[in-house]
Amino acid sequence: MKTVFQNSELAHIWAAQNQNEGRAGSFYFNGKTIYSYGSHFPIATMIGNDVLFTKRTYSNTTAKHIGLTRRAISHKTIIYCYDVPVNLKYASTEHENNLNRWKSVITCLFNQLGNKKIRNTADRINGINSLISELTTYCQYFKLTVKDKELKSLLTLAKQPDFLEQARSAKDKANTANEKKMKQAVKAYEIYLQLWRAYNDEGLKDMPAKTKELCNFYQNNAASLTRLRYNTGENRLETSKGVQIPAEIAKRAYIQLNGCMEGTCKDISVPVLHYTITETTKDTIKAGCHTIPKTDITYIANLLKW
Predict the structure, then answer these.
(1) Residue-range domain boundaries for the chain
(2) In this predicted model, what pLDDT tens digit does every residue of 257-284 receive, in sequence order?
(3) What is the value of pTM for the model shown?
């Protein structure tokens, strides 16, 4: 069994949970947990359809490993925490560390809200709500009770009517801002897509910093689509999430999809390497964390004259 992969593939192999180990240099997985550099830095642990996922980071390389892992599990239920439990039966230390870390960050944001010199309170309110949501989800998952008096006081304060009113208003503003940014990101990603499909590495490198930031925002958004290109030299398809598929295997899957390309199909099972196409909608096909526009499939099919 193959155990050495490229960085872009490793997280997908781990997410599929079809083998016990795999490695791409300092990026590796062992069983249900995937790591960066060593056992001291677990990125995520898979528990069925749930994933315990770290909020920590370390180096630029680890940040890239975290990004690749997150994209490979966009179809899973993610439970965020700071220290990822590996052995769930003996996770008391991780639980204590996580609750203390949430308490520290929430306390800091509350203190900032109390500073009258800070006019932009929306980000702090959104941050508090987000952290409390993460903490609550984590505690419910592990059936934990918050016993720390200071943390309990903070959670009670966050439920006060005035705070909630501000929080809702801040959330609406944040949602509007995100919608606006996503529209900008879609346009920026089209620029990236043209250069990416042309293998124009220099062009990608020279993109304006704002365009790069918007492209990264798009790629990390749950609503983003996985795009396709064709590598002529290697005779393979490549996805924007780093998966490489030999053209013959892709063609076989295309033929198996048959009428599903024209309509909507659910509960299907079309294998593609380590992945399985399980559904097609009016405009997309879905395989695990990959949602691919049918226009991209048609683009490849026409290009290769399938």
Answers:
(1) 7-81, 91-159, 177-219, 228-303
(2) 988 998 899 999 999 998 999 999 999 9
(3) 0.72
